[in-house]
Each structure stands twice: as structure tokens, then as C-alpha cells.
Amino acid sequence: MTSPTISSGLGCVVDAGPSTVEFPPGATFGPRRLDDFELVWVLSGSASCTIHLPVEEPDKEPDDESGERRRFELRPGMLLLSRPGMTDTYRWRDDGPSRHAYVHFSLNPPSLDERRLTGSAQAWPLLRTLTADDPLEALCRYLTWLPSAPEQSREDAVAATVALVVQLFVDGPLPQARPGPRQHVAGIGAWLGARWQQRGVGPVPVAELAAGVGLSAGHLSRICRAEWSIGPAELVEQLRMSRAASLLRRSNLGVAEVARACGYVDPFHFSRRFRRCFGVAPREFRDHTGPGLRQVDDAVLALAARVTGDGSAAPPHPAGLAD
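User: That's the sequence. What structure does it adopt?
Assistant: C-alpha cells below.
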């Protein structure tokens, strides 16, 4: 595998990954001593991670008794950078499956490339919380997708992306997190997207959503009201309605089929909920070309695009529709 470099001169050799793994409830992994670097980011669910940082002393092998132990609660929207010599142990949440992505890599050559970044690798940060404005969040999504890319271009893209992630993780520059709850937006979108991809679009209990993103139900409710001015249950329904609106505009599916695709068993109940959201029945919405149509709030549409990953959840605004 080649070792492409970025402007900083940092070169990475990818040893394994990027790969995605799903763990059943309560699964454990480790203890494991790392021989290389590893980036880990949670896609859904959560995990407790304990890391042992050995004390480095000249002419002495590190042992399990000395050093420092740190414990992290990993959830979507967090990025962990583990380094050689560490010993890690994971325990995944008990109340549902969890998914994480990872990539192992080495610096090439190690002594030169560590010096290109601030301090030695032993002083680098271990964990960063990603925000909606953070390029690391988008780069992690790109790494998650890259295994599906054509093989002839995949290896170089993975190595170059990992090098950029490490450069930004250690030295930046990174945008400052905006005040308030925006750091959790990416995690909520990622968890809902993964959940609906696995089980189909449908209602999600508030307690399950809160546990999936590592928050209490009360904290999740406060974040939703601060970010979208609605509670988490209403947020989930508006996301389902956003998808329904998109299907009505961009497909030939009948109303009953759209209802099923959005997790509504009864098409009459779906129609009542749709009218409550948009002010018109589903068939009227499909045929509507005049002004005055209510729309899902733009902030909810932005989250809907994040949940689907391609923006298709947001209903279009044809000419003549009110913004």
C-alpha cells in the first residue's frame, strides 16, 4: 500500500479497515494491547471504553500495574484515537445492538511523522467530540463509505483521508463548537439513520432514542426543544413526515404505500397525521401547486437530510409554494 502525504508531510500506512462491526447487547472486547494506531467512531448505540496508558521508562518493559487508566463513554459524534502501547477494553450497551467503525494505521516513518505534529504521540489527545461544523465528522462518514468505492482508487483515498483526520485531530485547525446542544445533532441523526436502515422507518420510543445517543430522556428533550423547538417524539414524527412528503413528490407510490414506507400501518391514521403537519391531505399535497402550503421547519429538514445521508428526505419547494 502506498503512503500518500498531505501538505503537512504526514504519511499514513493503513494496516486494517476502515470496517464496520455490529455488536449484540452487552458484548465485550479486550483487554487488547495495541501495536499500531486506531481510530474508532460509534455509528449507533454506545460503549464504555477503558484505556490503560503505560508509563514509559527507559530500559523497562511497560506493565499492567503502572500507568494511568481512563474511562470513556463512547457514543455517536465522538472520535477516539488510540495509540501503540495502550491496552483497551470495551463493553457495549446492554439495551440494544451497537455499531462502530474503525481503521488501524501506522505512521511512515514513525519517528519522522510524529515530529511533524505537536509533541510526541504519547501527548496527543485521545478523544474529540465532533460537531455539526466539524470536518472530522464528514471525514469519518467518508471513511465509513470508502470500502464500497472502486478498488483501484480506494487504498490511496483511505490513506490520505486517515492522514488528514490525524492532522486535524492532533493539530487542527478546527472550528470552535457553537454554544448550546449542537454537538449532539450529529449523534441523533446518525443513530436514527442507522436504526431506520436496520429496522425500517417507524416510531422510536423516546427512552430508546435517548439511550442510543447516550443521554437521559430529560436531557434529550431539552436538546430537541433548544434545537428544533419540539420534543423528541414530535421530532421523530416530523422526520417521518418529511420522508412521506418526499415520497409523495418524487415517486409514484400510492398513499397507502407511502404510509407503510414511513411506518404507519393504518393509511387513514397516516393521512390525519400528515394533514396535522402540512395542513392538507397527502393527495392534496401531491397535487398542490399554489401558495400557502405549510412546510416542515428548515432545521428539521436539515436533520432529515443527515438521517437519510443524501438529502432526499427533504420535500422540494416547487415554484409557487410558500417557503
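The first helix runs from residue 110 to 115.
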